[in-house]
Design brief:
The chain is an alpha+beta fold. The chain is about 30% helix and about 25% strand.
């Protein structure tokens, strides 16, 4: 479903009354094409000389990049409303999804048969208006630290990135691929030698049908299979 600001405001009004006693003022609502979240609370913060934090200037931001049904959208909005309630009331939690957040989340899930979770983006399909076929130039780098780094590179900067990566990272091995898998739409396309940490097993699963590349002089081409 396509989401609008009116959709979010209607959900906010409904669950503000049900879950938060109608005590939350309507914040600014924004909808964009973020790749790394479904919903996000944004705010400004002041810290006094004693280290006490004060939160203000709130907005709720949502991504229309991923396909959500009504039930999922409501869970995402309520998730962000819990964050909003905690910060609006200047409650100090133990972490972003700490003890206060989890207690409120579990209570709402139980009372209103919701399915609010801590992490809620995994496995969601990309929305229809973003499903056009794209070709991704993907760099997969194994680091000596044991981490796996991924870069989805601008093709016009491929050679510069190829040369700069070993200067910026302690790399054991690098592989390059062309793929049309929309999984890689979640990574920001980069013009510089910048790697993003990723789960090796998940990334390799999405590269199973990709075309592996090799650099020969000033050409990056599909890697030739060696004859056995």
């Amino acid at each position: 479903m396509r989401i609008t600001i009116i959709d979010i405001q209607n959900i906010f009004d409904k669950y503000n009354e049900l879950c938060f006693d109608g005590k939350l003022p309507m914040p600014r609502i924004r909808i964009g094409h973020a790749k790394n979240y479904l919903g996000q609370l944004r705010y400004k913060m002041n810290k006094d000389k004693d280290g006490k934090r004060t939160y203000y200037d709130f907005s709720l931001n949502f991504s229309k990049l991923y396909e959500m049904d009504q039930q999922k959208l409501e869970d995402v909005v309520i998730h962000e409303m819990i964050h909003y309630y905690i910060h609006y009331n200047q409650i100090q939690d133990t972490s972003s999804h700490g003890a206060v957040f989890r207690r409120m989340m579990n209570d709402i899930n139980t009372r209103f048969q919701r399915n609010i979770t801590i992490s809620d983006r995994s496995g969601l399909p990309v929305a229809n208006d973003s499903q056009q076929v794209k070709l991704y130039l993907v760099c997969l780098a194994a680091l000596r630290s044991g981490d796996m780094g991924v870069a989805v590179c601008a093709r016009s900067r491929a050679f510069e990135i190829y040369d700069e990566l070993p200067l910026r990272y302690d790399i054991l091995k690098v592989n390059w691929y062309f793929t049309t898998d929309p999984f890689f739409n979640r990574f920001r396309r980069t013009n510089t030698a910048k790697l993003y940490r990723a789960d090796k097993e998940e990334v390799c699963k999405h590269l199973a049908s990709a075309t592996e590349l090799e650099r020969v002089g000033n050409v990056i081409r599909p890697k030739k299979r060696r004859k056995v």
